[in-house]
Structure formats: C-alpha cells, structure tokens
Amino acid sequence: MAEFTTILNGLDVMMRLGIHAHEAAPQRVRLSVRMTVAYPEPLGADAIEQVLDYDFVREGIHALAAGPGFALQETLCEAVAALCLADARVRQVWVQSMKLDVYPDAAVGCELVRVRPGSPR
C-alpha cells in the first residue's frame, strides 16, 4: 500500500461566516486542507487517473462559499471534512479555517481532524 498526504493550502474565499451583524456580508476566509490518502499499491505511472485529484476539494470549497454561509467556523470545517471523506481513499483529513479580517492585528480560526472509521491513526 502507498500513502500520501495531499495538501490544499491557503485557499482564500469570500463567504458569509459568523454570528455578528457585521459578519452578514461576505468576508475573507482562508482554508487549508491536508488529506491522508491511501492507494492499494505503489503508483506505477505518472498519471492523474491513479491519484486523488485535489480539484474536487477546491471546487467543493468554492461551492460551500457560494452557499448561504455558516454561523460557526466549526461547522464550516465539518462540511469541508465531509467533502474530503466522500472519497473512500481519504483515511484522515485535517481542515483549518481562518477569518482574516475580524481583528486588525490577528486572524481567528479553527482546526478539525476527522479519521475514517476503521482507519489506523
């Protein structure tokens, strides 16, 4: 078996995220994702068909950002993790969200790790 970590790092999107009145308008949110992906055997060819194509994660996050929004970063991270775990090869996913403009001197965020049931840690 071969196992890789596939990374989507620092994807900035505009989305509704928050509980405060000033967060009703879309704001900048940065998402990063790390997926532990298992393949049944070592890769033999240099072909995208053999591996997880991270386009589906990027496109899925853009679709979530275009939706009605989320009250909590924790809920957003859960939605991104579920998106990633929809691919059966993903054994574990780490998701980080960061609101970039809440404070002038700091970003605020949340991280989540989900492991597919039955997968080794």
Give a written overview of the molecule:
This protein has 121 residues and is an alpha+beta fold. It has a single domain (2-43, 51-115), classed as GTP cyclohydrolase I, C-terminal domain/NADPH-dependent 7-cyano-7-deazaguanine reductase, N-terminal domain (GTP Cyclohydrolase I, domain 2). Helix content is 21%, strand content 37%. It is built from 2 helices and 4 strands. Helix 1 (55-66) runs antiparallel to helix 2 (73-85).
Compact description:
This protein has 121 residues and is an alpha+beta fold.
What is the secondary structure topology, with strand pairs?
Layout: E1 2-15, E2 27-39, H1 55-66, H2 73-85, E3 90-99, E4 108-115
Antiparallel strand pairs: 1-2, 2-3, 3-4
| Major β-sheet annotation | 4 strands, antiparallel
Number of β-strand runs? 4
Sheet/helix structural class: alpha+beta
CATH superfamily: GTP cyclohydrolase I, C-terminal domain/NADPH-dependent 7-cyano-7-deazaguanine reductase, N-terminal domain
Query: What is the radius of gyration computed over CA atoms, rounded to a whole number of angstroms?
Result: 16 Å
